[in-house]
Amino acid sequence: MKNVLILLVLMGLAGPLRAVAQASKKDQTAAKEVEMLERQRFEAQVKKDYAVLERVFADDLVYTHSNGKQNNKQEYLQSIRDGKSQYDRIEVEALNVRTYNDGRTAVVNGTITITLPNKPDGNPNLAHLKYVVVQIKDPKKGWQVVLWQSQKQPDKGL
User: Domain DUF4440: where (predicted)?
Assistant: First the structure.
């Protein structure tokens, strides 16, 4: 009788444990997708690949620059077109993705160094940023950035 009770308890736990394992696999897959897309988005910002940027930024994007200025999607893309937001290079130093909502919501935080056009005196112009991104997986459009916020960090002694 004791063995039957143990077997029933274990069988009762199997379903929830399997669901947790499946959710974990979904979260891991989503985290890998989002990390790859983050890197692709940075590359698109450098290359001014507007087709990619139009796709990865949600229509209700809130983009808060490190100086506190906020843009919506159209304003931010226009700032790239107008040369107000210029990126010669974006180097990812740290990237952490956490997923929620069964792998449909991702919170990303990281550290990047942006190489901007040289200063007027010819010296390098670097911005060290810590940032947070929230991405939502739209059933039709895929992963999209709904929120970006960054903060300048002290120079690394350059």
Answer: 37-145
